[in-house]
Specification:
mainly alpha, disordered C terminus
């Protein structure tokens, strides 16, 4: 059917014209009406060729391959999401949960490391005072020994004060299972480990006071022996001057003061012999006492004989000669004795050097683990 007023259109273009009043969907180009039975093709008896089978097999394969590719994309996408939201299994903790606490503790630890670096200066100085003490003893240098004692005391006091301040700031001394658990709950494992390392570095200086105290006391004891020996020699020289003037009674009184100094030194040697070998010192003191006894006997004999040479005087002179021959020709033996006494104190010096080395190593490891801002503050 066509619309009035319009020219006749070919049948082939009828599909482009408006449809009025009727449905031409069921008609072909020639007006032939299709029945539903016309689309019912009878495929019974139709046999698939080899090409049909190949095309069907290929088609199914391509469909399956497409589904497989889609599944792989979804799997990779899911894996990326999971990887982005999970931590590496080796971390041992959820750092995003402890970030705030870690940041605060990290800054505190960086500050502690800087304080440890300053504390190390005092430890290094203490090591120098320990070496100076041993050297002063070996050289019988009382001035050097006294100087080392004063500076060493200042060093150890500064070390103890700094360590106490750090322990209080970090609460290093209150270690317990409960605290360990609380640390692991609050901070990441790596920062907890660093906290323990800082506390161990602080603890490494704890033995220094006892080591220095032992070294200082030993040095003072050794110097006391040296002072006794020097005092004896000085007083005995005065006694000999009185003897040359024939003032035997005064010489004996003066010699008694000299012998008191040797008695004091002998008592020290007896105590030291319980912990170390002081055989050289003991032998020297015994020979000195033997000389004093021989002189005392001689001078008393001269008093008894009223200045005359008697058999008793002759025997006393012979005893003095024998005793004198046993004495060292110079005071070099004193340096040998002091060297032996200094050797007894070497273990204390070694302990100080060991603590010094442990702190230096710990500090080097801690500085390498500082945050960038902490490192800049440390070098600045």
């Amino acid at each position: 059917m066509t619309t009035s007023g319009l020219p006749q259109r070919p049948i082939s273009g009828s599909g482009l014209r408006p449809i009025e009043g009727r449905d031409l969907a069921a008609y072909g180009p020639d007006g032939y009406e299709h029945g539903i039975d016309d689309n019912d093709f009878d495929l019974e008896g139709y046999e698939l060729t080899l090409g049909d089978r190949v095309r069907r097999w290929v088609g199914r394969g391509l469909v399956r391959l497409g589904w497989l590719g889609l599944a792989a994309c979804l799997a990779f996408g899911s894996a990326g999401i999971v990887a982005a939201t999970e931590h590496a299994p080796s971390s041992g903790g959820r750092t995003e949960l402890s970030y705030g606490a870690d940041t605060a503790l990290s800054k505190k630890l960086d500050s502690a490391v800087r304080d440890l670096a300053r504390l190390k200066d005092d430890v290094d100085s203490l090591g120098g005072m320990a070496r100076k003490t041993l050297s002063g003893l070996a050289q019988v240098n009382k001035l050097a020994l006294d100087d080392a004692s004063v500076h060493g005391d200042n060093n150890i006091n500064a070390i103890d004060a700094a360590a106490a301040k750090l322990n209080k700031s970090l609460d290093c001394l209150s270690r317990s299972p409960a605290k360990e658990l609380e640390l692991l709950k609050t901070y990441s494992p790596s920062l907890t480990d660093r906290y323990h390392k800082v506390c161990l570095a602080i603890a490494s200086v704890a033995p220094l006071r006892d080591d220095w105290g032992s070294l200082k006391a030993g040095g003072q004891t050794a110097m006391r022996v040296a002072n006794d020996i020097n005092a004896h020699d000085s007083i005995a020289t005065d006694a000999l001057k009185l003897e040359t003037q024939g003032r035997y009674a005064e010489a004996i009184a003066k010699l008694k003061d000299a012998s008191d100094a040797i008695t004091d030194a002998s008592g020290i040697a007896a105590n030291l012999s319980k912990v170390t070998d002081v055989s050289t010192l003991t032998e020297w003191l015994n020979r000195t006492k033997q000389m004093d006894d021989a002189l005392r006997l001689l001078w008393q004999s001269m008093i008894d004989s009223k200045g005359k040479v008697t058999a008793q005087v002759t025997a006393a002179l012979r005893a003095v000669s024998v005793a004198k021959a046993l004495l060292p020709a110079s005071t070099d033996v004193l340096q040998v004795v002091m060297y032996e006494l200094a050797g007894r104190l070497t273990s204390d010096g070694i302990s100080i050097e060991t603590a010094k080395g442990a702190l230096a190593e710990a500090l080097a490891n801690l500085v390498s683990g500082m945050t960038f801002s902490g490192w800049r503050a440390n070098v600045g």
